[in-house]
Amino acid sequence: MRIAGFIIGALSALALAGGPARAEPMRIGVAAPLSGPSQLLGEQIRNGALEAASAPDITIEVADDACTGQGGENAAQRFVDAKVQIVVGFLCTEAIEAALPILKQANIPVITVGVRTDSLTDRREKTGWPVFRLGPRADSEREAAGRLLTRLWRDELFAVIDDGTIYGRELAESFRTTAEQSGLKPVFADTFRPQLDNQIGLVGRLRKAEATHVFVGGDRDDIAIMARDAKQIGADIVFAGGENLRSAPGDVPLAEGTLMIALSEWSDIATPAALATLAAKGIVPEGYVLPAYAATEIAIAAVTETTDTGKPLTGTLAGREFSTSIGSVRFNDKGDLSTNPYRLFRFDGSRFLPLDVQ
Asked: Given the DSSP bridges, would you call strands 342-347 and 259-263 parallel, antiparallel or unpaired?
């Protein structure tokens, strides 16, 4: 009887207090440039994160990092004050590098969706920054170009040219180095003058060198003009370039068969469920919407597992594969993606389609 009376009394006390104590809501920070020239991209991040974290037991703390160092510091301090458990977002190196020392001190990991600077994760052992990168590294495009095209062109006569810009020169030189390490040597290599109305002279030299395939470190319009001029003089040449080929089209259309090293379009690889969720809210899945959506899915899964197991959050992020709306994601020891997300595509006359390389 005494035990029964104690239980009844305890239940009554709980009822008067509003019932059993509930766990604290999950708190996720979202850092995005919501002012300045990158505001549109910041809004994409915010929209994607908010839709992925729509459950009532999740609290989202959004902070404008303004893509500046001061903005990054302010956002980080706001997250610390709000006691968030993890942060997603960040597009700019200045903002995230200013934020990370503060977040590290508070033991708050970050999943960035847009910062490509190699040193961000290359310095991990020295800085101890708890950062994980959902987007590619700056050198991912160069690595993929060398690996994929040297495999595809191992029996071809190929040339390597660039437009003299830092981007073009690094992309072309990286490809040539990888090719030579694989025992392949270009039949022609040169730097061309970009933004000309025609490239007849260059194409003539390529034909004289008997090049049938050409890797171009340059922009979309120059590659389109080269292919046009090659066709005019009867030279059967396949041109390839980097993700600049996705730039807005100019006066000259790209030639069918043009090859591109680039990321997949997020909407092409996203799950139907995620696309339907966004469509129901009138959100177009462009730019950083889907990467932010996926980063938030990872954050939720990691915090949930950490709550259940007591394992450190950074350990959870580094130690498993996550199923997301844009595919499976695993981070390596530095916090980068464990696999290079760049792929090879072929232009079919109207759009780029994936091309498998054996």
From this structure: antiparallel
